[in-house]
Amino acid sequence: MNGSGYSAIGQRHRVREFARWIGGRAKGPLHALARIAARSYIAGDKLDDAMAVVRGLAERGLSATVGFWDSPGDHPNTVFAAYQDGIAGLAAAQFGDYISIKLPSLDYSREMLANLADRATEVGVGLHFDALGPETVDRTWAALADVLPNGDHFGCTLPGRWRRSPADAEWAIDRGLAVRVVKGQWPDPAAPDLDPRAGYLEVVRRLAGRARRVAVASHDLTTARRAIEILLMAETPTTLELLYGLPSRRQIELARELGVAVRTYVPYGAAYLPYCLAQMKRNPRIAWWLLRDAVRR
To answer: Is residue 51 within 8 Å of residue 268, measured between CB atoms?
Structure first.
């Protein structure tokens, strides 16, 4: 629920410790408030909710990325089934959209990854890999290198606030992957003071003119403009990717000014609940902010 690119995507990975505390006790007013507020920021609990948003975006000439946010403790088989359903749903819609997945949620299973990659390629749906914490990257890259062929159907996410991301950009270029650049939610333990905006643009410069395709994922108008300009000057296929629920009018205007397409990341699932509840317990003012936001929307 913030404007720093796709930082919200990493939240699920970091809330496992809160899930045990919340357990079955997360009921009552805070639970209800979290659900009400989150309706503005995720499509809903089910794939059907996400597909309804995707159809609405298509009517406006906008493409979509669908991402299932699994809950802490969900079994990899449960997540795998959700990803399979997502691929089937997008294939049936035929909007040319793609699905984002989180390999740690599959316990880095090569078998599951190969199944999803084969199916996505068969039906013409893109398969993209979200970024979580820095500690997940090496195992994710190893699994992708073992399983994925080079090809137009695959992509990965690189956070600007990680020191390793420029080198990871080289790896993605060598593999022929499309890249989504985000600022990132979690600091790099090896470089906690790294400026996420500066890091973002450093990754973009590394990709410019060399990556197959780049998605500039940011609601920060200044950063998005500069990143798109760098990529366009290098004749790199570029899109602006926005997070569903965040303000987007000015961002869409920017994309049209610069002549790039807009894509919207549409999350669904229930993983927002433990994060939202934990944050409200830490800072009760968040409950007021969420209530105010929900009323305004």
So the answer is: no
DSSP 219: -
Q: What are phi and psi of 238, to 5 degrees?
A: -135, 140
| pLDDT greater than 90 at residue 290 | no
Structure tokens at 126: 């893109």
**What's 193's DSSP letter?**
T
Residue pLDDT, tens place only, 75-128: 999 999 999 999 999 999 877 679 999 999 999 999 999 999 999 999 999 999
193-204 tens-digit pLDDT: 888 899 999 999
Structure confidence by residue, pLDDT tens digits, 217-241: 999 999 999 999 999 999 999 999 9
Two tokens at 162? 């990680």
Q: Which residue has the tokens 């690189």?
A: 158
CA separation (Å) from 85 to 18, 25, 62, 91, 230? Answer: 28, 30, 22, 10, 37
Structure tokens at 21: 């505390």
- For tokens 């199944």, the residue is 115
Determine contact, residues 161/189, Cβ cutoff 8 Å: no
Separation between Cα atoms, residue 195 and residue 263, nearest integer Å: 26
Q: How far apart are the first and last CA of the chain?
A: 14
Instruction: Specify the pLDDT at position 56.
Output: 92
The dihedral of CA 246, 156, 86, 15: what is its sign?
negative
Kindly tell me the burial class for residue 176, based on how many C-beta atoms sit within 10 Å of its own C-beta (0-12, 13-18, 19 or more). Answer: middle
